[in-house]
Amino acid sequence: MLLLLLGIILLHVAALVLLFVSTIVSVWTSSETGTSDLWINCTITNGGSHCNPASTGEWIQAVQALMILSIIFSCLSLFLFFCQLFTLQKGGRFFLTGTFQILASLFVMSGAIIYTVMSPDWVPETDVFGYSYILAWVAFPLALISGLIYVILRKRE
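^ that's the sequence the OP posted. Answer follows.
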């Protein structure tokens, strides 16, 4: 049972780390001349770097909000798991923890979908999706699986 709890916690922490990295790091799209993400767009010209804030369009703000919400809900879910681990009665299920983690996964999925659909209007065709974007998509199934495991999990003695 201890090994199962450790595995669940590691899966949750892995998803949380991926959420943090994908939200913070500036490589949602990249090209030979620069990178862009949810917060800032950087270009490299003549050996120097020039960075501007990301556009203020509604869609990019929606992606920003959804990624932040996914981090908040995933952190709350981990905190709730530890609280329920010590307060839940024997045989109880971790429904609240699972619900928060599943919501976090849905938030990151929604943010990535909005970015995928709207970025062709904003990003040049020569740019490719960067590793932060890919990490966001990897965090989605990890958080979803983690949330489903929490819903199924029963507390033992």
